[in-house]
Amino acid sequence: MAHRIAVIAGDGIGTEVMPEGIRALEAAAKRFNIDLAFTTFEFGSCDYYLEHGKMLPDDWFEQLKDFDALFYGAVGWPDKVPDHISLWGSLLQFRRQFDQYINLRPCKLMPGIKSPLAGREPGDIDFYVVRENTEGEYSSVGGKMFEGTEREIVLQETVMSRVGVDRVLKYAFDLAQTRPRKKLTSATKSNGISITMPYWDERVAEMAKQYPDIAVDKFHIDILTANFVLHPDWFDVVVGSNLFGDILSDLGPACTGTIGIAPSANINPEGMFPSLFEPVHGSAPDIAGKGIANPIGQIWSGAMMLEHLGYQEAADTMVKAIEDVLSEGNSQVLTRDIGGLGNTLSLGHAIAERI
Amino acid sequence: MAHRIAVIAGDGIGTEVMPEGIRALEAAAKRFNIDLAFTTFEFGSCDYYLEHGKMLPDDWFEQLKDFDALFYGAVGWPDKVPDHISLWGSLLQFRRQFDQYINLRPCKLMPGIKSPLAGREPGDIDFYVVRENTEGEYSSVGGKMFEGTEREIVLQETVMSRVGVDRVLKYAFDLAQTRPRKKLTSATKSNGISITMPYWDERVAEMAKQYPDIAVDKFHIDILTANFVLHPDWFDVVVGSNLFGDILSDLGPACTGTIGIAPSANINPEGMFPSLFEPVHGSAPDIAGKGIANPIGQIWSGAMMLEHLGYQEAADTMVKAIEDVLSEGNSQVLTRDIGGLGNTLSLGHAIAERI
Ligand SMILES: CC(C)[C@H](C(=O)O)[C@@H](O)C(=O)O
Ligand SMILES: CC(C)[C@H](C(=O)O)[C@@H](O)C(=O)O
């Protein structure tokens, strides 16, 4: 039986890196005898919005819900559509409606990539950020009062539920158990954000009782970002709310020098709905259309998708191919952001061949 | 007329670095003929809480409101009192009741201090974080429902007012105007936090019209933290909400290697109430009682206090003294966190003598 993959390339460099993601996946599928069937969708882009006045057709849920996974590029083009409209109209809908309550992002210093941190080598930085992906600070509850006057006031509710907090914590603890160091760090801000964050801490303490083998610590988000820079080697699995996870999963890849190549998975662990796999980088209007975007984030996200579908060996092979091509450091092949003279195509082809 | 300074040392290393802060201030006062009168208060510490069941006496506002400034150490000792109680019972009360709506924190790579970022030298990193300090994500509005059950839900309101947003933006734009690069960066997250943050962006755009000479840009907080690490030289004045400013003003000093020595000012610009000057570091229970804490954050905060009181030359002299002692790099003098063999006293004395 074929695995049905919905492909949404989105905007900007999303449309440029997507073909390389598919090329690599097809190479892995061939080698490991996996049957992947790709279906491409045009919606979920700002151009679609300009034509239709919305980011997605009304029946998007029906159209997508029976796919085995969504393979996603990048969305957003602020000059065409304000970000909060394009994102809340697409990506954030998928995450919420398909209950992809885990956002998983590896932060790994790869061979051949220079960390902006002094003296850090591959092996020194290797952790996961597990982000709550459906509630918390990203809420749609709130509004304005006394609009347009001096007394104007704007409210937005952060919403945490026991169900929502516990399930992401459980996922993070379970993940920590599969790792050699068995360490979990919780991101909090309970000294300043005095209602939701102490609650988060309580649930972490409660969940920790069920995992006596996991070493648990917590940091307030301010000093935690500092420690990502000062002591990236401290971390193994880091779990945070929607906003804190968002911040940490950009900062972490930045510390590994890989903001342009980091992957992510938006997972519905129960498999009730399709999970979504996308690079961490955005649509990058500044370099879009030049063919120079780095396709590794898309390819690596494809590897996370194969892992999710149960093909661990194929996934490992894809990541290994990325590492090998990076190690070799052939400047004709590598894109400019990582010191090469090549482009999206040259790097995508090299990785696909290696697979 | 003497300037009346209220001294609250607080907890942990706060009590150890405070005497060195005062020593340096007295040296500067002597040299520049400034009349400073210090009054010490015992409240605002966790020990006070254990004795009195509250962090502050009921009449703290009356007792403190006529001082010219508050010189503050550090508060918090989680093993004695939960952080959200000790902080909301003291520091956060001062900030809010004394309407210290600006939190100003310099991020400057100092001579003799090693940045954790590869290849960065003094001069490369030199910016200010301006943080909104009274509203936003640090709100006291919210609560729980279905407590203790599976359906438990916890809400906390982020509150932004036009008055609150505009006044911090105005301060930040004014500050940018005094700087050679005249550049302002706004921290946002309007793509995900869809009500308050687009409002913040709107107010920035509105205020920018009044400052045509200032170059304004904005970044979402996730990529902004990444850019602090990747491109710290891009920044001049960075303005953010209460939470975003909190994060950036720990991360910024971390990038300059000075998380233990960074100062901060909590300012009521109109001078209706006293402003408060404190090091960025906390009470550091892990090293408290050993006499090894670095006093530079406290001394540098003292310099910011003198600047606020109108003594620019004295403030500059204090900062220069810190820089000189750091440049010399005498290991007998420097504390261990910056590679020396000395302690709080040796470093404090050396700086005071230099002044
Ligand atoms: C201690 C804490 C409440 C405080 C804050 O978050 O404001 C601190 O981190 C700071 O930056 O002054
Ligand atoms: C584009 C934006 C809404 C999104 C987020 O904040 O979740 C992005 O930053 C991410 O991390 O996937």
From TrEMBL, chains A, B:
<dbReference type="InterPro" id="IPR019818">
    <property type="entry name" value="IsoCit/isopropylmalate_DH_CS"/>
</dbReference>
<dbReference type="InterPro" id="IPR024084">
    <property type="entry name" value="IsoPropMal-DH-like_dom"/>
</dbReference>
<dbReference type="InterPro" id="IPR011829">
    <property type="entry name" value="TTC_DH"/>
</dbReference>
<feature type="domain" description="Isopropylmalate dehydrogenase-like">
    <location>
        <begin position="4"/>
        <end position="351"/>
    </location>
</feature>
<dbReference type="InterPro" id="IPR050501">
    <property type="entry name" value="ICDH/IPMDH"/>
</dbReference>
<keyword id="KW-0520">NAD</keyword>
<keyword id="KW-0464">Manganese</keyword>
<keyword id="KW-0560">Oxidoreductase</keyword>
<keyword id="KW-0479">Metal-binding</keyword>
<protein>
    <recommendedName>
        <fullName>D-malate dehydrogenase (decarboxylating)</fullName>
        <ecNumber>1.1.1.83</ecNumber>
    </recommendedName>
</protein>
<comment type="similarity">
    <text>Belongs to the isocitrate and isopropylmalate dehydrogenases family.</text>
</comment>
<dbReference type="Pfam" id="PF00180">
    <property type="entry name" value="Iso_dh"/>
</dbReference>
